[in-house]
């Protein structure tokens, strides 16, 4: 009942769901020092197109070698672009918005005025310019995220649409006044076409280098596509096909910042398992499967004797966050689906002395293949520690709220918790994958693993509920409240100390 009580507390505390617009770091015209426009032409909404641009030529890029060094430099470039454009006799800076490497969005002509950026289409499009040159390299993660959020915001404000039925173009798709253009560069064009148009069905589709597809630092145009579900597919003739992925969703793996901020519970669980089952040895080489945003991976790399740790995860967004925030001389991160043998690098075979898989397995349907893959990476005698939520504790997968069915008809949960009445079965599965089982039992979560204040709990739920994307932003709080009440009802029979997860410690034979 404690949970239900909290839910009741939560209702008056509810605030409007966070809008994508609120997440943007907007720099107003006054703040970047814009000249007033000579004239304005109102834009009719919703515009049916979004056009992506970049600001710099190859030559400019070369002469600007280190790239932009700070915010001031970006801002100066925005002013310079305005001067160039007005110098040509235009009314104002041509673009509706510009985005810098820090993810700041500069208001050009804004949502409501017709731009001057793509001759065919100014009156039916929003032109977004990424500051820099992006033929071979992508803009920073912050810039890409800002681009995606800006488009979602425009969509939310009904400036772009109708619904998500608008088209996204690269400037080069539509032609320039001078004829052809390379703008916005192949790397950005490719990324934008795959990522900016769909809020949820095409989740992060990127093209990556064949030789080292799993390393994000190497993202390049080539023969493989990887989505968060890492559908690895060859692209015939190198023409990119966009694969729509609906319905197969795990937790919300698109928002690394959100997860990183709200993973206190997972942290406690992992630290508890490490303390109880792992004895570090000199020269340990560790594989952290489903490493998320990498905090635990890094923590393990700092333990006495540990030589190095490799973290793998399904989510490109999490891996990218981990690489930026939790990498180190002896820690590296790679995108990989633990249940797909093709994602395991040949050099990982037998290379690890320990493997961990904390709070991940209930998201993986084919656990046996995942265990086999992990086993193949361990040396003989290498140890594995895992936990997997039990069915009785994975209520989020059982949520079916009649009031919300209309929004969720295309959504199915993909959560695969372990049956409460077959704890021993987990041990048998490990044995079939080549392990000797040292411990395998049902265990409660460590005390106070999850926040008790309503806002904190709501934030944790947000990281777990991918279906929120199907719910209109202004209704998400309402949905979360209903989800709470339903979960609290399901948890009524749950007693303090009841097992939440099956925990196993095993050794490779
Ligand atoms: C609850 S998080 C736990 C992350 C991390 N171990 C921690 O304790 O913070 C679950 C993670 O499993 C990852 N995941 C889900 N399915 C996966 C799969 N098939 N292969 C690899 N990672 C997967 C998700 O992307 C997510 O990062
Ligand atoms: Zn352009």
Automatic annotation (TrEMBL):
One of its GO terms (biological process) is peptidoglycan catabolic process. GO terms for molecular function: N-acetylmuramoyl-L-alanine amidase activity; zinc ion binding. InterPro entries: Amidase/PGRP_sf, Amidase_domain, Methyltransf_25, PGRP, PGRP_domain_met/bac, SAM-dependent_MTases_sf. It comes from the Eukaryota. Keywords: Signal. The keyword DNA repair does not apply. Residues 1-17 form the signal peptide. Residues 24-175 form the Peptidoglycan recognition protein family domain. Residues 35-185 form the N-acetylmuramoyl-L-alanine amidase domain. Belongs to the N-acetylmuramoyl-L-alanine amidase 2 family. This is PGLYRP2 protein. It comes from Branchiostoma lanceolatum. The gene is PGLYRP2.
């Amino acid at each position: 009942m404690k949970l239900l009580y909290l839910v009741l507390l939560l209702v008056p505390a509810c605030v409007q769901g966070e809008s994508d617009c609120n997440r943007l770091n907007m720099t107003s015209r006054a703040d970047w020092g814009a000249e007033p426009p000579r004239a304005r032409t109102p834009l009719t909404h919703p515009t049916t197109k979004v056009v992506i641009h970049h600001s710099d030529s190859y030559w400019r890029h070369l002469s600007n070698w280190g790239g932009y060094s700070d915010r001031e430099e970006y801002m100066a470039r925005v002013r310079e672009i305005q001067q160039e454009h007005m110098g040509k006799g235009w009314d104002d800076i041509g673009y509706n918005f510009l985005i810098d490497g820090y993810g700041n969005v500069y208001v050009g002509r804004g949502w409501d005025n017709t731009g001057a950026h793509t001759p065919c289409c100014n009156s039916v499009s929003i032109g977004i310019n990424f500051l820099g040159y992006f033929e071979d390299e992508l803009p920073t993660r912050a810039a890409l995220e800002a681009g995606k959020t800006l488009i979602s915001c425009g969509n939310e404000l009904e400036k772009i649409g109708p619904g998500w039925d608008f088209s996204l173009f690269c400037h080069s798709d539509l032609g320039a006044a001078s004829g052809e253009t390379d703008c916005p560069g192949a790397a950005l064009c490719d990324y934008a076409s795959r990522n900016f148009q769909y809020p949820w069905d095409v989740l992060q589709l990127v093209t990556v280098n064949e030789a080292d597809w799993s390393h994000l630092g190497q993202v390049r145009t080539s023969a493989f596509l990887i989505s968060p579900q890492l559908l690895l597919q060859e692209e015939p003739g190198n023409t990119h096909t966009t694969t729509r992925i609906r319905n197969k969703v795990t937790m919300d793996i698109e928002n690394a910042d959100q997860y990183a901020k709200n993973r206190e519970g997972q942290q406690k669980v992992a630290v508890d398992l490490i303390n109880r089952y792992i004895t570090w040895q000199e020269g340990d080489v560790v594989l952290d499967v489903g490493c998320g945003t990498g905090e635990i991976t890094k923590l393990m790399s700092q333990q006495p004797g540990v030589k190095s740790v490799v973290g793998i995860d399904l989510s490109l967004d999490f891996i990218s966050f981990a690489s930026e925030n939790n990498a180190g001389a002896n820690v590296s991160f790679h995108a990989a689906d633990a249940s797909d043998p093709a994602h395991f690098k040949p050099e990982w075979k037998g290379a690890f002395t320990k493997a961990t898989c904390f709070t991940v397995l209930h998201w993986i349907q084919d656990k046996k293949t995942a265990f086999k893959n992990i086993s193949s990476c361990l040396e003989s005698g290498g140890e594995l520690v895992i936990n997997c939520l039990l069915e009785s504790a994975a209520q989020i997968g059982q949520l079916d709220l009649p009031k919300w069915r209309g929004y969720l008809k295309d959504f199915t949960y993909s959560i695969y918790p372990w049956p409460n009445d077959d704890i021993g079965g987990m041990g048998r599965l490990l044995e079939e994958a080549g392990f000797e089982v040292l411990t395998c039992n049902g265990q409660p979560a460590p005390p106070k693993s999850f926040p008790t204040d309503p806002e904190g709990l709501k934030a944790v739920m947000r990281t777990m509920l991918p279906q929120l994307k199907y719910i209109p932003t202004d209704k998400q709080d309402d949905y979360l409240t209903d989800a709470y009440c339903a979960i609290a009802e399901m948890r009524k029979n749950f007693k303090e100390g009841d097992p939440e997860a099956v925990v196993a410690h095993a050794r490779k034979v």
